[in-house]
Known about the structure:
six-stranded mixed sheet, alpha/beta, Rossmann fold, 10 helices, single chain, 12 strands, GFO_IDH_MocA-like_dom, about 25% strand, Dihydrodipicolinate Reductase, domain 2, oxidoreductase activity
Amino acid sequence: xxxxxxxxxxxxxxxxxxxxxxxxxxxxxxxxxxxxxxxxxxxxxxxxxxxxxxxxxxxxxxxxxxxxxxxxxxxxxxxxxxxxxxxxxxxxxxxxxxxxxxxxxxxxxxxxxxxxxxxxxxxxxxxxxxxxxxxxxxxxxxxxxxxxxxxxxxxxxxxxxxxxxxxxxxxxxxxxxxxxxxxxxxxxxxxxxxxxxxxxxxxxxxxxxxxxxxxxxxxxxxxxxxxxxxxxxxxxxxxxxxxxxxxxxxxxxxxxxxxxxxxxxxxxxxxxxxxxxxxxxxxxxxxxxxxxxxxx
Length: 296
């Protein structure tokens, strides 16, 4: 690119350190300009590691960047992303995009009003193997159902085990958006949550209805001590079945592919994308409906 996008990073936790910061700092179309975090010492450490400037004042950081990438809990991200959009900044958003449908709607309105680009980090959607499978499904047709499982012990041990929002909201909010997004892309828009249950062990099980009549089932859990963890998606219909596993392209490479799209959107003036903030709102509504159906 002729000119790199100046990107500010909000958040300095494990995922920001492993994915966002190195991805932005090493991408040819972006430069990591600044880092803001709720823990100033963490912001300073992460910024120093990548040649960026730590900020204690979020508004001050906004004045120095073209775009903001968020890696904080949804309850923190929603209001801060609205503020960034109102300031005319392009957005890279984590999922869920907010803590509620109401805040997500306000965020979509702010992004639309500002005319800025936005992408949601639905990691597997930016993997080449996922794009290849979805293209194949569209070419073939005849798919009537699917089964998706995202099972791990992430809340028991590892870098995300001390994440308060994940313990509070569980697998539905953390890995649910990934599962719903892929099922939606594969079978058609999810129009209803037919049933949803939450067990004492933190296992979510759901039945979804899709436009066109297809149905799918989902199992989500972050508190089962399985090694290795697994995530898979199987689509079936009149032409057999196809399976996608989560053992393909590394997450950092997927994030780099996201940044390819993001930079292209900003430089071309494009604000629409299949994984933009409106997609985030759609997924937020599915989460909300599932929680209400389960009485959770």
